[in-house]
Automatic annotation (TrEMBL):
SUPFAM superfamilies: FMN-linked oxidoreductases. InterPro entries: Aldolase_TIM, OxRdtase_FMN_N, Oye-like. CDD domains: OYE_like_FMN. It comes from the Eukaryota. One of its GO terms (molecular function) is FMN binding. Residues 22-358 form the NADH:flavin oxidoreductase/NADH oxidase N-terminal domain. This is NADH:flavin oxidoreductase/NADH oxidase N-terminal domain-containing protein.
Length: 391
């Protein structure tokens, strides 16, 4: 059986399509006017130049394949500086070579009238010392499976880090991005500051007091907003995830104040990108890390709508298929639904959902193959499948 046949065997069944649902109504996300609400999630794929961290022609092709008229793509997580951590094949945005490589990506997406935002990344305590000079964190609590040689960021370090974020933001604008997303989720540095399970500082940037733990993330958001403008800025959070040994005993006691700060301090913030509680950072299965009690993003959504009066939208990620995405958009008419794995396997995902065409299933074994075209740019569109006689 061919790889294509294997993928087709696991496709979602055909249905009537979502053309008449809110999923295909226009929506304004900050400075970006979208024509539909099927967005591409930030997904690390290690296809960039392993020496320079610059996007290759393969990366340009990947994003261009998934660009649509008025559709939103968010890039894979991108290092803001060499000190933010590293691993072979992940991109950066601190050098002119990287800026030039990303400019090819944004030009290709804009040629199809698409929108593309860059996600900013700092690994913090999750960095591998094999590839990173230092392993930084908000506090001194290591991952049980990670490096024990953690360096807690000093106040001077934090000031330098703010400069690094500002510089990265200027470079992203030079590269032609429509906006930037701060990665504040999944147990990386910003999340490490937000949560007491990773932040055991005793100064004004940590400890039990939530206002201390949000202080540095708030400074980062303000620094980025000063460079790109609130309407070109989004923030990602994963309040309920246990990925990388995170999750507060009472998540909303941290993430509601964080959301309130974001919407009060930045009333024109483009969006908050929330990871659903039903999804894990690295699992194919819904409910893999399901908590003992039900969690819901509803309190966060309600607070955003109340505080921002509709200016700040919600992006929602987490194990959606075509039907559940359409149903969600009809229930929550100011949300954008974010797809990851299905968008990997279906470069024409919005059109498949719009027309009720079956979705190809992803092949996780191809997700992280440095430099490989396989599983990255070789997935056919629905029309190509028809022409090949596989439908």
């Amino acid at each position: 059986m061919t790889e294509l046949a294997k993928a087709d065997k696991h496709s979602s069944p055909a249905w009537e399509g979502a053309a008449s649902t809110n999923l295909f109504r226009p929506i304004q996300i900050g400075s970006s006017q979208l024509k539909h609400r099927v967005a591409y999630a930030p997904l690390t794929r290690v296809r960039n130049d392993p020496q320079t961290g610059a996007p290759t022609d393969l990366v340009v092709e990947h994003y261009a394949q998934r660009a649509t008229d008025g559709g939103l793509l968010i890039t894979e997580a991108t290092m803001i500086s060499p000190e933010a951590g590293s691993m072979p094949g992940v991109p950066g945005i601190w050098s002119q070579e990287q800026v030039a490589g990303w400019k090819k990506v944004t030009d290709a997406v804009h040629a199809k009238n698409g929108k593309i935002w860059m996600q900013f990344w700092h690994l913090g305590r999750t960095a591998n010392p094999k590839y990173s000079k230092n392993v930084w964190s908000a506090g001194t609590i290591p991952l049980s499976t990670g490096s024990k040689e953690i360096r807690q960021l000093t106040k001077d370090d934090l000031a330098q880090l703010l400069d690094d974020y500002r510089s990265a933001a200027r470079n992203a604008l030079d590269a032609g991005f429509d906006g930037i997303e701060l990665h504040g989720a999944n147990g990386y540095l910003i999340d490490q500051f937000l949560q007491s399970v990773s932040n055991n500082r005793t100064d004004e940037f940590g400890g039990e007091a939530v206002e201390n733990r949000i202080r540095f993330p708030a400074q980062v958001v303000a620094a980025l907003a000063d460079v790109v403008g609130e309407e070109r800025l989004g923030v990602r959070m994963s309040p309920f995830s246990r990925f990388q040994e995170m999750r507060e005993p009472e998540p909303l006691q941290t993430f509601l104040p964080w959301t309130r700060h974001l919407t009060n301090a930045h009333p024109r913030l483009a969006y908050i990108h929330v990871v659903q509680p039903r999804i894990s950072g690295a699992s194919d299965e819904e409910g893999h890390d399901a908590p003992a009690v039900p969690d819901s993003v509803a309190p966060i959504r309600d607070l955003v709508r109340q505080q921002s009066r509709g200016a700040t939208k919600l992006l929602i990620a987490g194990a959606f298929d075509a039907r559940s995405a359409a149903e969600h958009a009809d229930r929550h008419d100011e949300d954008v639904v974010v797809f990851g794995r299905y968008y990997i396997a279906n470069p024409d995902l919005p059109e498949r959902i719009r027309n009720g065409h079956p979705l190809r299933h992803w092949d996780r074994s191809t997700f992280y193959i440095p430099g490989a075209a396989k599983g990255y740019v070789d997935q056919p569109t629905y029309q190509q499948e028809r022409e090949l006689g596989h439908l």
